[in-house]
Amino acid sequence: MSFQNPVFIPGPTNMPEAIRQACSMPTIDHRSPIFGNILHPCLDGVRKVLKSESAHIFIFPSTGTGGWETALSNTLNSGDTVLAARNGMFSHRWIDMCQRHGLDVQVVETPWGHGLPADEYAAILKADTNHKIKVVLATHNETATGVKSDIAAVRAALDAANHPAMLFVDGVSSIASMDFRFDAWGVDVAVTGSQKGFMLPAGLAIVGFSDKAMTASETATLPRAFFDIKDMQNGYDNNAFPYTPPVGLMNGLKHALDLLLDEGIDNVIARHTRIATGVRLAVAAWGLELCAASPDVYSDTVSAIKTPDGFNATDIVTHADQVYGVAFGVGLGDVAGKVFRIGHLGSLTDVMMLSGLATAEMCMADLGLNIKLGSGVAAAQEYYRANPAAIIKDA
Ligand code: PLP
User: Fold this and answer.
1) Which residues does the annotation say bind substrate (predicted)?
2) Ligand 1: distance of its center to the CA of 243 in Å?
C-alpha cells in the first residue's frame, strides 16, 4: 500500500477526486452531438473565468507552450516586431519561441525577481511612432521567480502611446487562481494550460482571442496547421474538433469549471491570496526572503524562496522527495540552486498548506539550516485562524 501526499509544485496541481473521475469517463463517439455537451460548456466556462463577454475560446490538445505557439502563429507574419521583457524562465522561453518563428523581438532585459517594466514599455511604445511593434508580450505570473506583473499598467502604456499593438498575456500560472481580466485589461490573446488553476492533468492548451486578434488571424502568414484557429472554429461550428479531441480531459475541464464557478471566481482568487499570505508569513518567520523583489509583485500561486549563500536550494527538493515523499519545485535557469519553490495553487486548503510548510521546515532543519521547527507553521496558523476559510463541502 502506498499513500499519496499532496504536491506543492507550481503545477501540475493536486486534483480533486471528482475531477479525476470526470477525466476517466467511458469512450464516446466524439463526432456525435454528445461531444457538444462537453465542448460548449467548456468554451463558455473558460470565457467566464477570463472575465470576458466576447473572447473567442480555443482548446487544443497541447500544453501552455502550444498556447504560446497558437497566439503567435495565428496572428503574425515572419519578420514582425514583438516587444517583450525577459524576467524569468518562462518569459525567456516565449521570446525564444518568437525568435524561432522568425519574429524580431525587442527584448527588455529585466532582473529576475522584478515584474514587467511598464514604464520602459511605455517609453518604447511612445517612441515607436511608425507602429513597427505588432505585439506586446506579457508574462502575468513568472512561475520561475514567483513574480506577478501589472497587466493593467501594460495596457495603460499602450493606450498612453495610442499604440495599436496587440497585447498577448501568458496566464499559465495565474488564470483560474489570480485576478485576471481579459476585457478590462484589453487583452488580445490570453494563454493558459489545464494543469494549474484548472486542477487537471497537463494536456490542454487553453487560449482566448479578442476580435482584434481574430481579425489579425485572417491575414497572418506564419505557418500553422495543428494550431490553426480557423480549422478549430470550423470544427466547433459542427460540435467537433478538426481532429480527435481529448474527450476525457475536456470532460474534466467541464467539471473543473463547474467547481470554480460554483465557488465564485473572486472567491477562488481570495482563497489563493489567503493561502499565499500564510506561506509568505512562514517564509518571514524562517528568516528567509523571496526571490520576488517587493510585495507588489508577490505571486499568489507560487513562492520562490531564497536560501543562504553556499547552500544548494535543490537539496531541499531532493530531500523532501526522498525522505518525506513530498514534492516542491526546484529553481530554474538563473536561480537554479538558489531558490526552492512552493506551489500554492489549485485544489488546496489551509490544512494541506500547513503540512507543506511543516515538511519544508523538517527538510531545512535536517539539512542544517537554522530553522526552528514550527516557526513558519505557527505564523501561517495564526493568519489562517484570524482569517478562516469558507468551508466548501461539495465535490
Ligand atoms: N508559462 C508559464 C508562466 C508557465 O509556468 C509554464 C509552465 O510551467 C509555461 C508557460 C509552459 O507551459 P507548459 O509546460 O504547459 O507547456
Assistant:
1) 341
2) 24
Tell me which residue range forms the domain holding 90: 17-262
ipTM for the complex shown: 0.99
Q: Find out whether the beta carbon of 63 lies less than 6 Å from any atom of ligand 1.
A: yes
Asked if residue 189 and residue 170 are part of one domain, the reply reads yes
385 marked as part of a ligand binding site: no
CA of 90 to the centre of ligand 1 (A): 7
Atom of ligand 1 nearest to the CA of 143: 5
Instruction: Give yes or no: residues 170 and 187 share one domain.
Output: yes
pLDDT number for residue 389: 84
Report, as ranges of residue numbers, the positions in the chain whose pLDDT lies below 50. Answer: 1, 395
Tell me: do 203 and 302 sit in the same domain. Answer: no
CA of 178 to the centre of ligand 1 (A): 15
Determine whether 50 is exposed, middle or buried from the number of CB atoms within 10 Å of its CB (0-12, 13-18, 19+): buried
Q: What is the pLDDT of residue 3?
A: 81
Res 394: pLDDT: 57
How is residue 252 annotated by DSSP?
Answer: H
Q: What is the CA radius of gyration of the chain?
A: 21
Residues 6+ apart with CB under 8 A from 188: 75, 135, 166, 167, 168, 209, 210, 212, 213
Rounded Cα distance between 363 and 385, Å, is 25
H helices present in 221-349, as ranges: 229-237, 247-263, 265-285, 314-319
Tell me which of 262, 288, 306 is where a domain ends: 262
CA atoms within 13 A on the CB side of 316: 34
Q: Is 2 domain-assigned?
A: no
Query: Cell numbers of 211, please?
Result: 476580435
